[in-house]
């Protein structure tokens, strides 16, 4: 672990381009709930951070769930009676319904249509469909492709395997000064989707890479898991460790152009909730904050009543609320490097605030201490910056009663958090404050 002071920001030159290039590299990989594509994805990320790959065998009981069979697919296509290729997995991983069982037979169009999925309202787009927990098969295609299919006999081939194997997830842990943890989680199971999964994967990876070079107060655990079953699996296998998790974020949809949305923890007033509200307000970007509800992403597993962890969710577009969701339109054109960089910056600012948000006790609590004799107060001769620092001193000294954090003081005073935490450190140097352990 590095030793740099975390108050110093990392070098973020060309960050958006770096994030986008990582997404471009991951985009073609065929991912699903399980399988070789997830391992390939995590191995690619291993070039940036040393991710630990974990394999959990098929049939393993994880609370009320069971690890499913492992699914892999080699090829899939539909050909007409003349041998013309109508649909091919080589063109898009979305063309096959996820977890389709193997099949190779000829079928008339009327019967085949029972296994075809399109989006009539968006006739050029391919939908994303899965059949994780019910054995079936199918193809997804654009509605225009379906309209061009003639009344014919079609050769249908899905060369896939559904057999005993394992579920793969990745984990990267950074040891801090304490065992108290910040959990940051994202999904790895969606194929050919730039905003869903890949934007969060890229941000998570670069956050972890940059954080690893700093001396940190908290320990950080980054999870790269398939949706739903992934965090359930991690929680089932690591239940005793969850007491160390003090703050957490599930990340998704971080590359599109929509305003930020923060979904609060189930607790509703956890420190991570207050931190994100503060950071988003200070960012001067458009945003909204919504209450927790038990649908959406993996925050609902971490916030389930048996755990009730302080884990919120940061996103731009919201789950299921935009037409590109779960379609081929969630492609590399749908995300922008500048938006990825902004999302990274919000996450970094949240971590910076968590790292520096402390509680202090005023060591001279009976009336104001005399700042002038310590050279901390210049009165009428103060310039604007000095005057702001002096006001911060008064706010900090008055509210450093062990019950108000620096973030609380920043919110009450309207003074930027960075100013508050810098001045607090200065007051400690003059023995006017003592940190509450």
What features would you describe in this structure?
- Helix 10 packs across helix 12 and helix 11 crosses helix 12.
- Helices cover 30% and strands 24% of the residues.
- The chain has twelve helices and 21 strands.
- With 437 residues, the chain is α/β, with parallel strands linked by helices.
- It is elongated and about 95 Å long.
- Strand 5 and strand 6 form a beta hairpin.
- The model has no long low-confidence stretch (mean pLDDT 94).
Give a count of the beta strands, DSSP E runs of length 2 or more.
Answer: 21
Shape: elongated
Strand content: 15-25%
**Sequence stretches where pLDDT stays below 50 over 5 or more residues:** none
Give the helix/strand class.
alpha/beta
- Total DSSP helices: 12
Report the span from N to C terminus.
23 Å
Strand order of the largest sheet: 2-11-14-12-15-18-16-17
Mean residue pLDDT: 94
Give the biggest beta sheet: 8 strands, mixed
- Portion of residues in helices? 25-40%
Radius of gyration: 26 Å
Defining traits:
437 residues, alpha/beta, 8-stranded mixed beta sheet, 4-stranded antiparallel beta sheet, 12 helices, 21 strands, 30% helix, 24% strand
List the helices and strands and how they pair.
Layout: E1 4-5, H1 15-26, H2 36-45, E2 52-57, E3 61-62, E4 65-66, E5 70-79, E6 85-88, E7 103-108, H3 109-112, E8 116-117, E9 139-140, H4 143-148, E10 153-163, E11 166-174, E12 181-187, H5 194-211, E13 214-215, E14 219-225, H6 229-237, E15 245-251, E16 260-263, H7 271-283, E17 287-290, H8 299-302, E18 311-315, H9 337-356, E19 359-362, H10 384-399, E20 401-405, H11 406-413, H12 417-429, E21 433-435
Parallel strand pairs: 1-13, 8-9, 12-14, 12-15, 15-18, 16-17
Antiparallel strand pairs: 2-11, 3-4, 5-6, 5-10, 7-10, 11-14, 16-18, 19-20, 19-21
Helix pairs in contact: 1-5, 1-9, 5-9, 7-9, 10-12, 11-12
């Amino acid at each position: 672990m590095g030793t740099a002071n975390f108050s110093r920001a990392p070098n973020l030159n060309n960050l958006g381009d770096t994030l986008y290039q990582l997404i471009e590299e991951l985009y073609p990989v065929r991912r699903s709930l399980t399988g070789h594509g997830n391992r390939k994805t995590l191995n690619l990320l291993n070039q940036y951070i040393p991710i630990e790959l974990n394999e959990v065998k098929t049939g393993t009981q994880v609370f009320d769930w069971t690890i499913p069979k492992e699914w892999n697919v080699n090829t899939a296509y539909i050909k007409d009676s003349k041998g013309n290729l109508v649909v091919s997995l080589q063109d898009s991983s979305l063309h096959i319904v996820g977890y389709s069982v193997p099949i190779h037979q000829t079928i008339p169009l009327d019967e085949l249509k029972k296994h075809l999925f399109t989006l009539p309202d968006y006739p050029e787009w391919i939908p994303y469909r899965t059949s994780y927990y019910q054995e079936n098969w199918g193809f997804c295609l654009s509605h225009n492709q379906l309209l061009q299919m003639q009344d014919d006999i079609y050769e249908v081939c899905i060369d896939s395997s559904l057999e005993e194997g394992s579920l793969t997830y990745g984990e990267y842990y950074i040891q801090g000064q304490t065992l108290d943890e910040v959990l940051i989680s994202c999904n790895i199971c969606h194929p050919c989707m730039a905003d869903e999964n890949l934007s969060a994967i890229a941000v998570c990876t670069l956050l972890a890479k940059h954080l690893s070079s700093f001396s940190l107060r908290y320990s950080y655990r980054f999870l790269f898991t398939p949706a739903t079953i992934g965090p359930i699996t991690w929680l089932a296998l690591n239940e005793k460790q969850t007491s160390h998790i003090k703050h957490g974020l599930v990340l998704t949809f971080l590359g599109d152009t929509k305003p930020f949305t923060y979904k609060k923890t189930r607790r509703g007033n956890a420190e991570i909730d207050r931190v994100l509200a503060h950071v988003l307000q200070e960012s001067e970007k458009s945003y909204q904050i919504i209450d927790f509800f038990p649908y959406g992403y993996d925050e609902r597993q971490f916030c389930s009543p048996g755990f009730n962890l302080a884990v919120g969710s940061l996103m731009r577009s919201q789950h299921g609320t935009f037409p590109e969701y779960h379609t081929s339109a969630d492609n590399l054109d749908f995300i922008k490097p500048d938006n990825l960089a902004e999302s990274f910056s919000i996450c970094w600012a949240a971590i910076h605030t968590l790292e520096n948000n402390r509680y202090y006790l005023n060591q001279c609590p009976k009336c104001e201490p005399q700042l002038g004799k310590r050279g901390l107060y210049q009165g009428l001769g103060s310039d604007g910056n000095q005057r702001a620092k002096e006001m911060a001193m008064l706010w900090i000294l008055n509210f450093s009663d062990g019950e108000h954090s620096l973030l609380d003081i920043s919110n009450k005073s309207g003074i930027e958090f960075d100013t508050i935490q810098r001045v607090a450190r200065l007051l400690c140097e003059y023995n006017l404050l003592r940190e509450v352990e």
